[in-house]
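Lab notebook page, bench 4
Experiment: in silico fold of construct C2
Operator: M.H.
Input chain length: 193 residues
Purpose: comparison with the prior construct
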Amino acid sequence: MSAYLGPVHYWLYNKIGKQEELTGKLASYSAEKGWIGEPESFTARLPELESVIDVSNIHGWLQSRIADSETRLASLVKGVLSGHPERMEALLGVAYAFGQDNRPDAASASDIYRAFEDFFVNGMPCDRVNVVDESSDDQVSWHMAEDIHAAGWNGDAADYYRLRSSVMAGMLDRTPFVLDENDGMHYTIRKRS
């Protein structure tokens, strides 16, 4: 079966796995606080890709895993925040700590950008969601060509982007780099001043 699978499929599956880890951390924390019941209802364990993928429809199967992961994360966050928007600060703290736990070993802004691309689910590779505008060792700027997360969040992915920004900030903690977000669609990794 692995003869049908290429490195890009494993790369994408691993990114889905990272999102599942984040969902699990948020669900566990929310359950500890009594905000949700069973955290397992929001999380999924990802077995070895070869043992579960539909090789007759690799692209469709991976796309459905992305949609399922996004929908469960959105359902968790929306449920936790429903009537309690103040809980977002705590969720952002969990996301930041998750980022710290996944800090990349990167020496340049371009290394960090690559680490972000290897970490966050941004649709299928053919979607070409992130477009690099400028790249050097000291600074990488990019923009999102489309908001592919809105669908999983019923049209409003603002909470997703806040959580993702917090993960990114955690990943950059104790590095010489920071992330600037201009308008939610344009980003720059740069050396700290």
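Observations: The first strand starts at residue 130 and ends at 135. The CA atoms of residues 132 and 142 lie 4 Å apart.
Next step: discuss at group meeting.
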